[in-house]
Specification:
Blueprint lengths: L1 H14 L16 E8 L8 E9 L2 E6 L9 E12 L1 E6 L14 H4 L2 H17 L2 E6 L6 H10 L7 E4 L35 H14 L5 E4 L18 H13 L4 E5 L2 H10 L3 E4 L5 H10 L2 E3 L2 H12 L5 H24 L19 H10 L3 H7 L2 H6 L17 E4 L13 E6 L2 E5 L2 E2 L9
Helix pairs in contact: 3-4, 5-6, 6-7, 7-8, 9-10, 11-12
The chain binds zinc ion.
The site of zinc ion has 4 residues, from loops.
Length: about 450
């Protein structure tokens, strides 16, 4: 420990500004001008034809039909395409095996956390290439999502901007308990927060502080049972309302929002009354739950793709029987609940639960939102851009193509307002002003700049 502290002190003095000349200001980056055949800006405004977007460094500096391309600017010609803000997926799991891949149920027991984080790096790249420039990762063993976020921010690996929850937690034996379904002698002691367990008001307060200490941007809890956990019943309430109030209060003190996994109606209502920011899944809503969400301004992240995927796998006999039974019972309820929420005007942000389905296929969620909920294609696009940004608290920086926002820009061929599924094939991806994909080709990436 002393060695470490000494090293820290040495680093600190090395970086001290008083001991070095001020660094020369970097040369201004050349402007990039994007010619957009059709611009859908993510706010829900009508599309605009033949717009120009100017990008300087990592920000958008001008947008419109009468913007002049400055001399010397690099021009990116997307005049045959529809240009949109980078998509936002508010519910993914990157650093774990995808459902159905290998021995996915036991990967956490047999594979190193570091190995799963490396798998997460591949999933992150698939996600970015599909046009998702920001994701909220809601639950990862061993803080693998925090590691990925930091590696991406440092420029070591390509990937979306990550809002990380670190370890998600819930009651002992609940959906968030990572040892749910194992026999009791696998571990010498029952796990605590490091395996996703916190019971009672004191422990849940501590759990919030623990995950924030190790880098969580958002708190993810399990308010009810779940589908992919072996021993619990999917619909039952797991946290008490008192526990959830304590979680929300502690998170708020630490400037964090709370996302609550919740399928069953009682658990959804308790979480909403306790003040969580978003209900994840929201599978079994009733009129009172919908009214409560409207009144409290609670977001719904419906994860329709997850429901669709587990239903398909269950029907094909590819899930363990207790899990398959839960999936088949919930599926029709999910579609009905989502439609109720859309009709009532509940705030909705796009989320897929990627990891249940394959990473990089996230944009299929747009189509399901239209098909199941009767959303217009424009409403679905808003759910996956500006609404996602607002849910994540990043609305000043991302979610729209507008002056001052980060240059997260994607393009597709065709008109998503006529056929929402064209969003499943993204030809161009820019994040923070850097192009990662162009003409449908992923750009080769040099690692020469990695320290
Ligand atoms: Zn999830």
């Amino acid at each position: 420990m002393m060695v470490y502290l000494t090293l820290l002190a040495a680093l600190t003095s090395f970086q001290s500004p008083s001991s070095a000349a001020p660094p020369p200001s970097p040369p201004a980056a050349a402007a990039v001008a994007i010619r957009a055949g059709t611009l859908i800006d993510g706010t829900g405004a009508a599309p605009v034809k033949n717009a120009v977007i100017l990008v300087q460094g990592d920000r958008i500096t001008a947008v419109g039909t009468n913007v002049q391309v400055p001399a010397g600017a690099t021009v990116i010609d997307l005049s045959g395409a529809t240009v949109l803000p980078g998509f936002i997926d508010a519910h993914v799991h990157l650093a774990s095996r995808t459902l159905g891949d290998g021995d996915w149920q036991h990967a956490g027991l047999t594979e190193m956390p570091s190995q799963l984080a490396l798998l997460g790096a591949a999933h992150a790249q698939q996600t970015l290439e599909a046009g998702f420039t920001t994701v909220r990762v809601v639950g990862t063993a061993h803080f693998g999502d925090v590691a990925l976020r930091n590696a991406i921010n440092a420029g070591w690996i390509p990937g979306p901007r990550i809002v990380a929850a670190g370890i998600s937690f819930g009651i002992r034996g609940g959906h968030c308990d990572e040892t749910n379904g194992l026999q009791p002698e696998v571990f010498e002691h029952e796990g605590g927060i490091e395996t996703g367990v916190a019971d009672g008001v004191d422990e849940v307060r501590n759990a919030v502080r623990y995950v924030v200490k190790y880098g969580a941007d958002v708190i993810k809890i399990c308010a009810t049972g779940g589908v992919l956990s072996l021993t619990d019943s999917a619909g039952v309430q797991q946290y008490t309302e008192d526990e959830m109030r304590a979680i929300v209060e502690t998170a708020t003190q630490l400037d964090r929002r709370v996302a609550a996994h919740a399928h069953g109606t009682a658990g959804i209502k308790a979480a909403v009354r306790a003040g969580v920011t978003s209900i994840e899944h929201g599978s079994v809503l009733d009129a009172e739950a919908v009214a409560l969400m409207k009144q409290k301004g609670t977001w719904l992240v419906p994860t329709l793709l997850a429901g669709f995927t587990v239903e398909s796998l269950a029907t094909a006999g590819r899930l363990p029987p207790p899990i398959a039974a839960k999936a088949l019972a919930l599926a029709p309820r999910v579609r009905n609940s989502f439609k109720m929420a859309v009709d009532a005007g509940v705030k909705i942000a796009l989320g897929t639960d990627a990891g249940v389905m394959r990473h990089g296929t996230n944009a299929r969620e747009f189509g399901l939102m239209v098909r199941y909920g009767g959303m217009t294609p424009m409403q679905a696009i808003v759910a996956g851009t500006s609404s996602g940004a607002t849910l994540l608290g990043l609305e000043r920086d991302i979610g729209a193509i507008a002056v001052g926002k980060r240059a997260d820009i994607v393009a597709v061929t065709g008109d998503p307002l006529q056929n929402i599924q064209v969003l499943e094939h993204v030809d161009f991806v820019m994040k923070d002003g850097r192009v990662f994909k162009r003409d449908g080709q992923v750009l080769g990436r040099s690692v020469a700049g990695v320290p």
